Amino acid sequence: MNKSIGFMGGFYAISEWVMRFSITNLLWVLFNLPIGLLLLSLLYLEDSAGAMYLVVPIVALLPVLFFPATTALFAKAREWVREEVDTRHPRSFFSYYKENYKTSFLAGLVFVALWIVLIADIYYFSSRHEGLMSLFMIMGILLFVCTMNFFSVVVHYNMTFLAQLKHAFVLTIGSPLVFLAVALCSGVILYISLYIFPLLIPLFTGSLLAFLSFSAFYRLHRKIAG
Fold it and tell me: What is the share, in percent, of the chain residues with pLDDT greater than 70?
């Protein structure tokens, strides 16, 4: 009897976590649906000459949709890591989206600009200085981890926008363990999602990335806080 109760309890706990991750991820995908549709159109575009007509609106929508939605996603991940699960699941996601919209939008402008500069450098120098590609790859990983760390910082600390950017940068450079945890976990999840099991993307990819990234950040935060 006890084994049966234990099994059912474990099954219920797993089911609850699956529901949390999948519902939150679906909300995140829904908020980013225009970007997703444009990306799919770009993926199946036969005439490369028309790519700019899709790239420009994608870039323009990133600060407007992607960054606020991803901030809300990280806010939900923060609840899970801190075991502060809110039963008002969809409503709390919308609340986090609105609450952090201005900061997320500004962050989107900054990080999208940095990504544009990096991608432009890669495009320009790739055919001229192949030796620089390794450097650009390292810079890309650093910028990716810094972007992820910013989401963790913005949902956990009440700081000015510039202080949040600085804290995310210092965290990326100054904490090798967090850097490796975020980079490796993200790399594995993205590889599986893109090349092995694409169904993860609408159901779990975003939630898993946010949960693991914030977990690494929060472990360091607790260690520093004592």
Answer: 92
Q: How far apart, in whole angstroms, are the C-alpha atoms of residue 179 and residue 12?
A: 33
Q: How far apart are CA 174 and CA 97, in angstroms?
A: 29
Please give the helix or strand (H or E) that residue 171 lies within, else none.
Answer: helix 161-174
The three-state DSSP-derived secondary structure of 96-154 is HHHHCHHHHHHHHHHHHHHHHHHHHHHHHHCCCCHHHHHHHHHHHHHHHHHHHHHHHHH
> Domains of the chain: which residue ranges?
2-225
Answer whether 0.85 is exceeded by the pTM: yes
Q: In whole angstroms, give the CA distance from residue 80 to residue 198.
A: 24
Considering only CA atoms, which of 144, 166, 141 is closest in space to residue 154? Answer: 166
Are the beta carbons of 218 and 81 closer than 8 angstroms? yes
In sign, the C-alpha dihedral spanning 201, 202, 205, 209 is: positive
Q: What's the DSSP call for residue 51?
A: T
Using CA atoms, how far residue 219 sits from 180, 211, 214, in Å, is 14, 12, 8
pLDDT mean over 174-185: 95
CA angle 171, 31, 85 (to 5 degrees): 60
Spatial distance between the Cα atoms of 4 and 22, rounded to a whole number of angstroms: 27
The conformation of residue 62, written as its DSSP 8-state character, comes to I
